[in-house]
Amino acid sequence: MNKEDILYWLREKDEHKLNKLWNMADSVRKQFVGDEVHLRGLIEISNYCKKNCLYCGIRVYNTKLTRYRMRDDEILECVKFARKNGYGTIVIQSGEDTYFSRDEIAELIIKIKKHADVAITLSLGECDEQSLKIWKEAGANRYLLRFETSDEELFERIHTAKQSKSLERRIRQIEELKRLGYEAGSGIMIGIPYQTYESLANDILLFKKLDIDMIGIGPYIPHPETPLGREFIKDYKNDEERFVPNTEIMTYKVIALTRIICPDTNIPATTALATINTREGRILGLKRGANVIMPNLTPPKYKKLYEIYPGKSSADDEPEVIHQNVLKVIEQAGRRVGKGMGNRREL
């Protein structure tokens, strides 16, 4: 499938024709990654962030947000839950919080490994090479870092500082992750203001070029306490001929196309999909190319404060409730829970 094919499907609206795309993606998924859905327990350890990204609810200048940091014992309680329920991966996520030293993160990785035989994924933003090396030596297996868009102009538009070559730096760090032996995860938002079909097609092709191991794809959900969110809600008039809409159907298209272009990568049915379609967003994601779910194991008192976007699905639910709901989703999608760490390739 080439760029022209991708653009064709991104613009296609006929439901009967789209069924061909869904079936093609599901067939590729079944052939290359099978019927298992791997569970990756997400723990959001801090909502402090030094960055001021214009779309993100935990941006440093959102003064209306109550901030938190989880203690190690609280994090390890979440790990114990994951171990008891057979999760193959723990995902440690936060804003770019300079409070945690590289050694503290390394110690946390070691503690988690002692409590559970799991893969550890880190999602802590951009960081220096030495930290990445130390965390890899401590036992980290994967790192998630979204490049957000392959369009340099759009990248600068959704961030504050017009830093020279900032998109180039982000992509360079993804390449560095792979050189260090991490499975590298990345991703994009669908329908962020001023995203063109051309740039979105280039995003999908960049996933392939970078050989990304896990690809997160979710709809842009505007946050009213962000400059971009306020612009979207009040002034941004989406012209679907020029700009990509932040719709559920467009998100499924990108999941399906990414599965076809990157057949053996891991693709989650995201929480954002479950937020815009509580009843069947994740089910349809699984049926259209996804093979991972990341149940949020963060305690509710913290989880609702990790508000990158508002109205997060299951924000008030305890991990056990979320876990049972995820099992139902997998069953309804006609799939089964995956065993092991769910590596794209052996580390």
Could you walk me through the main structural features you see in this protein, from its secondary elements to its overall organization?
The chain has 347 residues and is an alpha/beta fold. It has a single domain, classed as Aldolase class I (TIM Barrel), CATH 3.20.20.70. It is 44% helix and 12% strand. The chain contains 14 helices and 8 strands. Strands 1, 2, 3, 4, 5, 6, 7 and 8 form an 8-stranded parallel sheet that branches. Helix 1 (3-11) crosses helix 8 (197-210), helix 3 packs parallel to helix 4 and helix 8 (197-210) packs parallel to helix 10. The longest helix has 19 residues, at 15-33. It is globular and about 50 Å long. The model has no long low-confidence stretch (mean pLDDT 95).
| CATH top-level class | Alpha Beta
**Considering DSSP H and I runs of 4 or more, what fraction of the residues is helical?**
40-55%
CATH architecture call: Alpha-Beta Barrel
SS strand fraction: 5-15%
Spell the H/E element sequence.
HHEHEHEHEHHEHEHHHHEHHE
Number of domains: 1
